[in-house]
């Protein structure tokens, strides 16, 4: 191979690598935006639908305590998987009403992700 051919192939490889890295950065940036949007949606939904009983930080308010609302920062709640929390939010439990007719599955998923953040912020 001549020197010019080697430089040309080397340039193509560098160009392809640069394009691939740029594409990866765009994808990662998009994932960050989605995660931030989901957290904001979860926070907003929680404030409007859950905080009256569970408090803004996941610990029950006086109203929540009177209804036996669990502390969402507790190990038993945080130990529940996504599917379990989705089922509770969707179908209700004890004094908690069902939200399946008020919230979409995507909104319930956002709430579950937001509830799991309470364990990280309270340890």
The CATH homologous superfamily of one domain: Cytochrome c-like domain
Strand content: under 5%
State the total count of DSSP E strands: 0
Radius of gyration computed on alpha carbons: 23 Å
CATH class of one domain: Mainly Alpha
Q: Considering DSSP H and I runs of 4 or more, what fraction of the residues is helical?
A: over 70%
| Helix run count | 6
- Strand-and-helix sequence, N→C? HHHHHH
CATH topology of one domain: Cytochrome Bc1 Complex, Chain D, domain 2
Structural class: mainly alpha
Low-confidence segments: 31-36
The main pleated sheet reads as:
none
- In one word, what is the shape? elongated
CATH architecture descriptor of one domain: Orthogonal Bundle
Write a structural description.
- This protein has a domain at 36-121: Cytochrome Bc1 Complex, Chain D, domain 2.
- The chain contains six helices and no strands.
- Helix 1 packs across helix 6 (105-121) and helix 5 crosses helix 6.
- With 123 residues, the protein is an all-alpha fold.
- The protein has helices at 3-49, 51-54, 62-66, 75-78, 82-91, 105-121.
Pick out its properties:
123 residues, mainly alpha, Cytochrome Bc1 Complex, Chain D, domain 2, 71% helix
């Amino acid at each position: 191979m001549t020197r010019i051919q080697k430089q040309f192939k080397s340039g193509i490889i560098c160009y392809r690598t640069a394009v691939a890295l740029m594409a990866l950065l765009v994808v990662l940036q998009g994932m960050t935006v989605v995660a931030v949007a989901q957290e904001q949606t979860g926070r907003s939904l929680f404030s409007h639908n859950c905080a009256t009983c569970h408090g803004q930080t996941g610990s029950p308010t006086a109203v929540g305590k009177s209804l036996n609302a669990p502390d969402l920062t507790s190990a038993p709640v945080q130990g529940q998987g996504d599917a379990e929390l989705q089922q509770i939010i969707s179908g209700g439990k004890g004094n908690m009403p069902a939200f399946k007719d008020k919230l979409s599955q995507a909104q319930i998923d956002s709430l579950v992700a937001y509830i799991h953040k309470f364990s990280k912020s309270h340890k």
